[in-house]
Amino acid sequence: MSFSNILDSTFLCRSTIAPAKKLSVLIVDDDSMIRTIHTILVNRVGVVVESQVTENGKVAVDLFGPGDSFDVILMDWEMPMMNGIEELRNIRVSSMIGGVTSHSMDTEEDTFMAAGLDDCYGKPLLIKILKNILQKMKIDD
Questions:
Q1: Most confidently predicted of 20-29, 32-41, 49-58, 70-79
Q2: Based on the structure, what is the number of domains in the chain?
Q3: Where are the transmembrane segments (predicted)?
Q4: Which of 32, 58, 92, 114 has a CB 3.0–4.6 Å from the CB of 81, allowing a cystine?
Q5: 32-45 and 127-135 helices cross at what angle (nearest 10)?
Q6: What is the C-alpha separation between 10 and 128, in angstroms, rounded?
Q7: Which residues contact 6 (CB under 8 A, 6 or more apart)?
Q8: Per residue in 62-85, pLDDT tens?
Q9: Looking at the domain assignment, is residue 48 inside a domain?
Q10: Cβ partners under 8 Å of residue 113, min gap 6
Q11: pLDDT at residue 127 above 80?
């Protein structure tokens, strides 16, 4: 599936979520195209106050100082320097953490979930899935 096809299918749903509150989102993925797609989706949903994007788990961990957090973290599993599982071991936050992976085996997803994810999704996210993630954060559609 090409980048433009992904975005075309993503934007077929043009409604936004009516926010109960604004959210901060951290997108962690080493693939620049996936980071771009997920950033566009997050902005398209229209509930985000702040979104930050990083290319690996080490940079993401460095973003967390005392008391810092994001409402939602979309995290890749396989990244250079520090993968998603190592990142989960290094951050313990009140954020909802959704794993985003190209791994399709249940055992691999189970391993990622056991590391501390709230849920796991296939790449790339579609707007419908992102809305479901945000609804889990008590956002009404």
A1: 32-41
A2: 1
A3: none
A4: 58
A5: 60
A6: 8
A7: 37, 124
A8: 877 767 778 888 888 878 777 777
A9: yes
A10: 99, 119, 120
A11: yes
Q: 91: which residues sit within 8 A by CB, 6+ positions away?
A: 60, 61, 64
Q: Does 127 reside within a domain?
A: yes
Give per-residue pLDDT as tens, 43-60.
887 767 677 888 887 888
Query: Model pTM?
Result: 0.73
* Structural domain range at position 54: 3-12+22-135
Does residue 140 belong to any structural domain of this protein? no
Average of per-residue pLDDT values in the chain = 74
C-alpha triplet 113, 119, 120: angle, nearest 5°: 75
Residues 6+ apart with CB under 8 A from 3: 33, 36, 37
